[in-house]
Design a protein that fits this description.
211 residues, alpha/beta, six-stranded mixed β-sheet, 11 strands, 33% helix
Amino acid sequence: MIEAPSIKEVNKHREKNSAAICCILFAPKFSKLGYEEIIKRFGYLDSITKEKLNIYCVGYGAYWNSDFPDKEEIGIAKYENGTEIPWQFSQIQFANFVTEFTKETKWSYSGGTELIVLNSDADFSSCINFKIDEMIKDKVINFPGELLEALIKHSQSENNNVGKFSLNGVGIQSANVVVESIFEFLPKAFKTIKNIWEKGKHYTLIDITKK
């Protein structure tokens, strides 16, 4: 789990994490669904994702000073190496990231909990945008953790190109294949209702680079 104060920080992913899938998580503290079901699992998620999956958490950070007057304490996350990090949330920082991301891309925020999955190059031209609120509303999943666990299992799979995908899949796997793989890792009960997954409603495969 990584703080995401700006797009610049996400872009550094290309330099430091050449094999990891890159995700941008929009789960603000004022959204009970994302905060209660995802953010409070910081320690666990950080330990299990390791170098295979990097989740950038918009609006969240640690050790913030007076430059963040609206910061809200989230609590201390304890990690397997003994490190303890006092995580915090800022509505202003969250809003700033959304504004910046909207200006620099064609993405538009739904106002709820969203997860944008990018390939290991953090390529905005090949995005999988999961709309978690809609997925739960339509009973595609019961809670956000099911999607995250499926994504984690996908990232840990034996496919050597697990972090390499594109919309058209030329030379590497396609984004559609990634979605299918993630789906296969969902609880068995949901494999029988695959037909309720709706592209455009529950998820989109999209190039959000601004032309």
